[in-house]
Each structure stands twice: as structure tokens, then as C-alpha cells.
Amino acid sequence: MTQEELFKKLVAHCKEYGFVFPSSEIYDGLGAVYDYGQNGVELKNNIKRYWWDSMVKLHENIVGIDAAIFMHPKTWEASGHVSAFNDPLIDNKDSKKRYRADVLIEDWLAKQDEKIEKEVEKARKRFGESFDEAKYRETSPRVAETAAKRDEVHKRFADALNANDLAELRQIIVDCEIACPISGTRNWTEVRQFNLMFSTQMGSTAEGANTIYLRPETAQGIFVNFLNVQKTGRMKIPFGIAQIGKAFRNEIVARQFIFRMREFEQMEMQFFVRPGTEMKWWNEWKNTRMAWHRALGFGDDDYRFHDHDKLAHYANAATDIEYNFPFGFKEVEGIHSRTDFDLGSHQKFSGKKLQYFDPETGESYVPYVVETSIGVDRMFLQVMSAAYTEQTLEGGDSRVVLKFPPALAPVKVAVLPLVKKDGMPEVAQKIVDLLKYDYNVVYDEKDSVGKRYRRQDAVGTPFCVTVDGQTLEDGTVTIRHRDTMAQERVKIESLHAMVDEECSYRKLFRTLNL
Asked: Which segments cross the bilayer (predicted)?
């Protein structure tokens, strides 16, 4: 099965089992907008809780806010979004499809990396245990040729981005013979910039309305509240402000399911530090955030750092944490050193001082900022991609199982009476009542127990509890473990402790060492 086929199966699974639906589907949907179903919203909320609690509860110097989506229009002038929040777009004249020029080139670079890895794997199989990978990479003419070409294009690409040279971006696409995935032709237009902000009107009449924007990021709500939080919370630098909220971008090239959408949710934390210490904190937050991702247990090798070729106008350092999705390594989280650009710019545009008096040094200054920013929807897709597993079982049977970390699973326990009689449903309902105040629990009595197990595997439920005849005699139930499918008899009164041990966030947090 190809990675593309796997991804199509994952998207279909999301719809079939109540995770993600196309928005307004009865009206044929709305491009790059999706709704979260009954299981999707639970998973999404659990991801947000894992992030929020690890930021706000585990760090004594980080607090949270919830800023409004609408902000004064001057905010976006100060932040640079009005003048500089653009994507370089290019059209294929034959397919009439529009693409981001930088993404086309990035995909080409990724293919060169794949070529090199395939050559290395071929050699590894050919030479067996005697294979010296480092030496082969240095001496193989094929690897050297591909690497040299890739490095040359990468340098041109980075230079073009930093110089905002749209003509050079197009020339790279032409020189690399990059074709449109739809038409297969290389009949490209010029590259041009497109602003991504949605605008709307605020006012009682059209004539008197003001143009305002739906926020394209949540960070500015934190920056304009910097002094409010610092003074009311008596916060001392270094400290952070966290926020989870919606953002909106008029993505022309929305693709790959919920990976890139027009309405999305962000989890951001802005960490305010003394000027001159920002690189130390940037490196610390890189390591902290990578540990947060790897604590989920999806495999350390499927994560990597990717430093930016082009720094944003506000940054002096930037890297992404990328995950190996079915469509390749892509960004899940960004860690940026934003300098004092944001607070300094808002200070200039508003005419209000946004400075911090440091009691340790006796001086006032505009703090520098280190940002960590995750797209909730991308994180959702990353968790789904990592958890989705197709297994062939003994006897030729098969199952699809979502191997979520138990704390993130939408449903923690499914309670199943063996039959719908003999008092078993009543006992099962009592077990639901025992657990439901602390965990999301479902009751299921339809079909055979085997079919019910498969349904729960498909939504990632860690535990299935079956009530049978023996339960009525000795108060024990069968508990089935999702990943191993192992079953054991346990007392009803011990269920809560078992579920708590496996499904609480404590188990994840202990690995973070915060």
C-alpha cells in the first residue's frame, strides 16, 4: 500500500467513525473547511488539554488568556500583516490550478532527499553487515550528483526567498522541470504575492462601517495584553502567556485534508525574556517542545527539527518541529525568536509604553519574545496518522485500530453486556455510572461482542469491559486491552483505579521532567 493510499484510507476513516466531516456537506461542502464529529471533538479537546496543562499547570511562570478574534485594525498594521502577510502563488495555465511556488520547490527538494535515501537503502541491502553508510554517502557518484544538485537549488531557493525575488522562484521551478500534478505540464504563469487576511465590516451602516480583519494568528492578542497580564499577575521576567484560539487565513492553496485550512485553531505561548538571553531560551524551548511531542510515544525518528531558510521579518531564529506524515515530513510546531519586534512595533503605533521595569537590573526595557506555536488541527492529523494501524490477526482476520495514547483517546472505556437480559444491562449501566464522572464512557449492547470490540478498536478506546454471567455471581468483569487484545478478570471496584493509572495525563507529564 502506497503512502497516498494510506492517507486516503485515513481520511475515509475519519468520516466513517465520527472524527472529521466536510463542512456543510449537504450543500456539497466548503473548500478547506471541516467540522469535527463526536469522536473528533473529544480527541481535539484532549490534545488541547495536554498542551494547556503542560504549559500552564506545570510551569509556575506561565499563565493563560483568551483574547478576542476581532482586534483594532491598527494591530495588523503594527504587526506587519497588512503589508507583508503574503504567499507567492503560481498558476498552471493548462489545469487552471494555483500552487504556492515555495511549496512546489520544497516538494522537489524533498524528492531529492528521498532519491538519496533510496540509493543508500539499495546499497545497504547489497553489502549487508559490511555496509559503511557514512563512507558510501561520501563516495557514491549517484549520491554525490543528486546531493550537489539539491544543495545548489536549495541555496538559490533560500536566496530568492530572502530577497523576495519572485522571478527567481519561477526560474527555479522552470529549471527543475517541476510539472503540475494535475495536468503534468510545465506551462506556468508568473509568480505573484497574495495577501492571506480575511476582511469584514464593523458598523451599523455600510457607509459608516470600518474595515476590520479576522485575526490570521493568535499571538497579537497576547502582545497587546502584555502589560495587563504582567501588572495584574505581578509577573517577573522570564514569564509566558499561553492562548488557544481560532485564526483565519484565506489559503488559496489549501490541501492535504485538515493540514492546511482557512479556519483553524492555534495553541501559542509567548515567552518574555531579557534582551540578550533570547537564544538561550530559544534552545531551551526547542528541547522542551520536542520532548512534549515524543512523550506521546509515536517514535522519536518520526520527528525532526527543520530550520527556516527565510526568517520572518520579526525573527532572528526559527525552527519547525516536523512529523513524518503519510505525505512526508511537514511542520507541526514552530519555535521562533521574535526579538522585540512585536512589543516595539505596538509601542510605536499605539503611543503607549510597553516596557518592563526589571528590579534586578534597575532598568526598563522592551522584552524579547520566544514563541512556541502549534496548529491544533495539524496536531490532530499528526496524532491520527501516527495512531492509525491496520493489523492482520491469527486465522486471517484483520482489524483497524487507532493506537492513541490513552489520555488522548476520545472514549476511555466501553461497557458491554454480553447479552441484553438476565440483569447484565443493569449491571453494565451501574459501571458506566461509576466511571462517567471522570472519564468519557460509552455503553454498547448491539451485535456480537467481537463486532463491538472492532468498533471500539476503530475509534481507539483503550478498554472494553464485558459484563457476563460470572459478573452476577462474583462481581468480576472481563477487561480487554486495546493494543494487545489481552483479557483479564477484575473486580468492578478496581476498574476506576486501572483506568486512572493508564488514562490520566499524569503518565504523560511524568516523562516531561518539568
From this structure: none
251 is in an annotated binding site: yes
pLDDT at 240: 98
- Flag whether 266 is marked binding: yes
The answer, yes or no, to whether the previous bond of 238 is cis (omega within 30 of 0) is yes
pLDDT of residue 204: 62
Domain spans, the chain = 1-69+213-392, 394-510
The segments of the chain whose pLDDT lies below 70 read 1, 204-209, 252-255, 514
What burial letters (b/e) apply to 138-176, b meaning 16+ CB within 10 Å?
eebeebeebbeebeebbebbeebbeeebbebbbebbeeb
Name every residue whose Cβ is closer than 8 Å to that of residue 167 and which is 6 or more positions away in sequence.
190, 191
Determine if residue 42 is labeled as part of a ligand binding site. no
- Has 273 been labeled as part of a binding site? no
399 is in an annotated binding site: no
> Does domain 394-510 correspond to CATH entry 3.40.50.800?
yes
pLDDT of residue 224: 96
**HSE (CB half, 13 Å, CA atoms) of 407?**
17
DSSP-based helix, strand, coil % in the chain, nearest 5 = 45, 25, 30
Residue 260 annotated as binding?
yes
Task: Please provide the CATH number assigned to the domain covering 1-69+213-392.
Answer: 3.30.930.10
